[in-house]
């Protein structure tokens, strides 16, 4: 997670007093901020401020009932702005939930930010919904809701359900829809096999703004969604990843939050283009055979004045009790999971991305903080639940409903939990008492593995139990092995400098670690830059160190990761039973002092089994003996010391002899040559 947010990017442009100045600002928005958005502002368009808002509704009684009960999972179809025609008159319908408001008006450039000219009507059913139709107001208009709220507070808010927002530092919503002509029919028909738990699942985690910039020295420049199609899609394809995970792409005002402090739960950020541009990026990934996972935050939201916090002058979306409603780690606020309307809002958001943008997965951020009332709180700072425990019962129920709904409506996707505790059954079905996620990040594996590899090889023999501990519990959940952005920021150092030794040994150790990762049971996730051994910590203000690829060491690391992805996809034993207890077997753990560990990965056909031999020391091991069963013919299919990876290339196995030593058990003795600080995979 990112550091605490220190300030906001709120710019109260609606304070510009005169219509003439508004028109000037309007042209500036067209020319400078989002040129792909306000094209019609070349001719300044104003709606007659004297023309009343029409009393119009698209809600049904069932909509209202489900919204209040927390069972309306497609609120984006009724809330927000909709360009429709009423009585042969085109215009825009608005609907917003503000239950404690006494007046809600729509303000924008179209009416000179007049706070009185276009009031919405409140429904009489006590739902707290304000709505109305403004004739002749069409696509591309910037607007906010001016709200007279609790205790006489007057505030301007962006639309929580808008699909598009102004480019920062401006914060208004824009009348816009998500219609797009998708060309990914083939992917959608076959994505079940790509997203299934018994298929290879290798994820490239990307922060879109800083992956590559048009001006690497200017943090305020961004490649567009279209440029990402030209640059990022072919790169991910070349590297062999099966999926890409986009760090939060929803609208957010502060770059330093990395997207985790969001204000637009139904809006792709305008930093890179409009919603159709975003859809085209997803479409391009799908046409390239790559799935897309959205990093999604339902644990907290920021305090920006135009956002959800104190939306109608009181605690509308967040808990009123700050023992539950305030997040001390991220200086933000926690959704009120008990409130039906908030639950409907959040599940509708998750469904929106799968429905409107064909997402193949949702990675839910900071699940641990949602589950526990005492998360990052000391005694006296939290109150036990009604049963005396520390579980947030409402959040647990919400998470279960979220997963049940997503898998019901989109059975070919995956939901993935970032959950760092021993909470039971995170990736088990709700009907078995689990939370219902498809996968869970294996944070214990990540910490233990990095702690082990940081050691000088001479000391690794004393910590082998830490290295092997993940195999004790790997079958408890459907685990994804994450080496994420969190491991290369805040002074933790880049991956290459976590490794001990001289330069050659650092690269050899990192190739060894990646070999272990890709042959360990479970799905994989690697953060951008790790694939070529970036030498700087990740900085969201710059771009990746692409110039490092001119060096054979970094180019070799990139090629190594590419070949590991290909190995993972080409060897069924590495994925067919990756979440099953019978998909893994220790072969040799009895050589601690030599630092050699051997294990087998097993698929549906024993003839497809592969064996991984890891040499954790910088010592060449000639004629190393291992014993395997049921398979007589073996060949080297991967060697992390290959010269193409900037390894020595001197120790390899062109021919592996198998000697039958016990016929009843079909046991064979293999003699292997082991390069230093390297992994060898035979199959």
Describe the structure.
This protein is α/β, with parallel strands linked by helices and 683 residues long. It has 15 helices and 28 strands. β14 (326-327) and β15 form a beta hairpin. α8 packs parallel to α10 (393-409) and α14 runs parallel beside α15 (552-570). The two termini are 39 Å apart. The model is unreliable at 3-44 (pLDDT under 50).
List keywords for this structure.
683 residues, alpha/beta, Immunoglobulin-like, TIM Barrel, 3 domains, eight-stranded parallel β-barrel, five-stranded antiparallel sheet, 28 strands, disordered N terminus
Task: Give the gist of this structure.
With 683 residues, the chain is α/β, with parallel strands linked by helices. 24% of the residues lie in helices and 20% in strands.
Count of β-strands:
28
Q: What is the beta-strand fraction?
A: 15-25%
The CATH homology group name of the largest domain: Glycosidases
Q: What spatial order of strands do you see in the largest sheet?
A: 9-10-13-16-17-18-19-20
- At the first level of CATH, the class of the largest domain is Alpha Beta
Helix content: 10-25%
Alpha-carbon Rg, integer: 27 Å
**Global geometry:** elongated
Whole-number count of domains = 3
Q: How do the strands and helices of this protein lay out in sequence?
A:
Blueprint: H1 19-33, H2 61-69, E1 80-86, E2 89-97, E3 103-108, E4 121-122, E5 129-135, E6 142-148, E7 154-157, E8 173-174, H3 185-195, E9 202-206, H4 208-211, H5 225-239, E10 243-246, E11 250-251, E12 264-268, H6 275-287, E13 291-296, H7 322-325, E14 326-327, E15 332-333, H8 340-357, E16 361-364, H9 367-371, H10 393-409, E17 414-417, E18 439-441, H11 443-453, H12 464-468, H13 470-473, E19 479-483, H14 503-519, E20 523-527, H15 552-570, E21 584-588, E22 596-601, E23 610-615, E24 621-629, E25 636-639, E26 658-662, E27 667-674, E28 678-682
Parallel strand pairs: 9-10, 9-20, 10-13, 13-16, 16-17, 17-18, 18-19, 19-20
Antiparallel strand pairs: 1-2, 2-5, 3-6, 4-5, 6-7, 6-8, 11-12, 14-15, 21-22, 22-23, 23-28, 24-27, 25-28, 26-27
Helix pairs in contact: 2-8, 5-6, 8-10, 14-15
